[in-house]
Amino acid sequence: MLSTTNQHRRKEASSHILDKNGTPNWYHSRITYFGILIGIFGILIGIYAVYGNIWEDFYAVSAAMSGNADYKSATSIYDFTANSIRGEEVPLSKYEGHVCLIVNVASKCGLTATNYKELNELYDEYAESKGLRILAFPCNQFNGQEPGNSEEICSFAERQKVKFDLFEKIDVNGDKTHPLWSYLKKEQGGLLGNFIKWNFTKFIVNKEGKVVERHGPNVDPHKLKSSLEKYF
């Protein structure tokens, strides 16, 4: 009698472990859970496919509206905007048909006096006669040599009798690099890396808005005359 009871108990316990085909019941549970996970994963992929595209479109539209499309897809400097030193948005398409010299400037650098003086001289010589435009972008990334705000930078520029176009202070390297400068560096890489090495790095842009030359801080503006004259 006791033996029969034990057999019955073992059979009952086995029925909880195995199905009628002898397959462990936990196997079915795992398949069920796995199926649920696959279903959830599929739903997430679907959501991403729909809303991911929406967000991509949103960012693309936002970039286009700001006038600073992804620098990797830009075809000229005319695809960008920048804020003037007075805070006004300037579409760089206004420079279409002009040879441009774009430079990062600083007011407290050892190169400041020579560069500001010679940039003014280039402007005097070529702005009216050849249509040269000079775009200067203050930057404080090199030993903190442009620490002032826009008003202070304006005041300094006035004392230097600056005649060329001055823009708001920006970053030219790092995560916050202005898109225009990312584009400039992509189009004309530098020695030992594309990053800007110091104040007064200069880019020459032709009349079609293409970046055609890059010159380091050691090249004074007056030495650029022969280069500029190739593109007038």
Automatic annotation (TrEMBL):
Keywords: Membrane, Oxidoreductase, Peroxidase, Selenocysteine, Transmembrane, Transmembrane helix. Belongs to the glutathione peroxidase family. This is Glutathione peroxidase. Gene3D superfamilies: Glutaredoxin. It comes from the Eukaryota. One of its GO terms (biological process) is response to oxidative stress. The gene is LOC106751773. The keyword Signal does not apply. InterPro entries: Glutathione_peroxidase, GPX_AS, GPX_CS, Thioredoxin-like_sf. It holds the Pfam family GSHPx. The chain crosses the membrane at residues 31-51. The lineage of its organism: Eukaryota, Metazoa, Ecdysozoa, Arthropoda, Hexapoda. The keyword Oxidoreductase applies. SUPFAM superfamilies: Thioredoxin-like (SSF52833). GO terms for molecular function: peroxidase activity.
